[in-house]
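Entry 14. Structure prediction run on the chain below.
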Amino acid sequence: MKMTQLFAGQTARFIATTLLLLSLSAFGCSSSTADKPSGDGHSEHDGHDHDHPSEGPHGGSLIELGAEEYHAELVHDEKAGSVTIYLLDSAAKVATPIDATELTINLKHDGMGEQFKLTASPDAGDPTGKSSKFVSSDAELAEDLDHEGADAQLVVTIGGKQYRGAVAHDHDHEGHDH
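Output returned:
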């Protein structure tokens, strides 16, 4: 009889543990956007309730900066050969002008490292001396972002603090083949 009681106790603990794990996974933070290979940090949530937009207000891909303190939106205009970064708030909805004159994208592909500067190009609503929009017309950056296996990281300083965010470029967009 003792063996039966021991088995019943182990079974009950197993079922309780399984139910706990299932409930935790069901209520965890889920994203409507596929977790990007960019390491966008969504695995380290602090339990807050928030939305995960799939793209920025200009239709570009999002880059998380810090623990979702800010976001950047990358818009790649292939016809013009330009790359534009828009700095956004924590919800990735409102422009966040900063006093920097440039941003940097560090990019590695085919074993080679390169650095590209995007210069401030203030949007119409940005206050004097600040910019939420940064542009590069360097065709090489636009081209390199399309390389399969390209590893790019945005580097920006906001309020004296440096932020880095992995750039995930969607290779399945319309208009060209890879």
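The first strand starts at residue 61 and ends at 65.
Filed with the rest of this week's runs.
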